[in-house]
Design goal:
This protein has ten helices and no strands. It has 186 residues and is an all-alpha fold.
Amino acid sequence: MHTESDDDLVKRIASGDRLAMQVLFSRHQIRVYRFVLRLVRDETMAEDVISDVFMDLWRQADRFEARASVATWLLAIARNKAYSLLRKRREAGLDDDFAESLEDEADDPEIVLQKQDKGLAIRACLGKLSLEHREVIDLVYYHETSVEEVARIVGIPENTVKTRLFHARKKLGELLKAAGIDRGWP
């Protein structure tokens, strides 16, 4: 079963095959989790979204039309659920006691310069990008998703993806330069 295609596994899931669900979950859970975590920036929320994504897969496997890859389909579901959760969180607002208990864990530019670690500096700079730019960079570079697949996941034209990618790389280059890293990003 581990050699079956994702499409075949989804067909088996549609007929109620739990083992196929376990295999598909093990193939895609980490990738989808990392994508969601970068969007929501909260591990508990990301885990909740992942649970919802794979529950939807279990319930809606018979609706999969194979217009995109299963991975693209899962990332699109995850993106929609993450945005929905972020909207609800924004609408609910924060409890004052909870807000006071939150610690700001973000590194300031001085700490980033002191560490001289490109990986940390890049992640910090990525966090400063707008959500639209961050998700395009994340999908293309961290998930190795094509522009065409990103367009399907995000629900925008391919040329818009290319434009966002251009501006995101430009802004990221500026942020990296400001953090003392002149090289390392094409």
